[in-house]
Structure prediction request, 345 residues.
Amino acid sequence: MDTGWTDRLRGDPLPWLLEPGTPAVRHLTLRQLLDRPEDDPEVHEAAAAAMRSDPIAATLAAQDPGGWWVKPGAGYAPKYTGTVWSVIFLDQLGADGRDPRIQAACEYVLGNTQTTSGGFGASGQLTRRPPDSSALHCLNGNLLRALLGFGRLDDPRVQAAIDWEAAAVNGDEGFRYYRSGTSGPDFGCAVNAGLPCAWGAVKALLGLARIPAARRTPAVGRAIGIGVDLLFSVDPAAAAYPAGWGNTAPSRSWFRPGFPSGYVADISQELEVLAELGHGRDPRLALAVEWLVSLQDAEGRWRNQYAYHGKTWVDFERQGAPSKWVTLRACRILKAASGARPPPA
Prediction:
């Protein structure tokens, strides 16, 4: 192990993360912590085993041949087994985007979840397209990240979602905001009483960060800059971001690292995206990194404090138990904070 980042661990979690019984974790550990290339035989074997194993296998088994989950339509409901969540979680699990079932799911989302404005809409209705007023940063960012991870960068519909994200953040002339949804520039959101939503910023940045740097337009660059400025507007360790509806303290969810990740963000995910955008060693993250380090146990493992237990097609992990997924995420952050090159997205 590279002592450039592992010296902050209280134990060695790598053998645990590499156990063959959880091939999806093993696959991403090989790629993201050990920097094995995609064509490495062990990487290939682990990736193939992950597709045959839960939770990826259970999620794909529940898919309708038409590409959707649970019911046709925009796919936001039910949480967290509907179409959009299944696609988002499959990406987070490192599922193989070349699988025809996943491409069918991508095609279904692009045909049914995208609004006419380009952004993805949070709607559970049995309608072909959700209204423009339902497009939100959190959903758009999550789906952008998944679709880009599944190879859809050059799809014109994905480009339209990218353009929507940048225009919504930047406040482009003529962009229409809604009192019931994305309500203003700089991540203004009606769900947060019209104030900038840091959860939405984290998710939007996760989507935009997956665009190769050489392919980012000036508008995307400006949107990323606004998002990074928002996240650094307070100490990320405190997460004291604007909170509407009379809330005077940050949501406790900020301080509960978990996996998978829906519309809620925690500090560790904020650290992940800032590191992915090149800020892993920024001194303004020091206290947040220290907070993350403090959560590990004597064996260098982190607990899953937000496991979506009983809400997904199959439980990924047990709530509150030592978590391979959260530990993998924490190790990625420590690696980035040490100055190591970012792992493959």
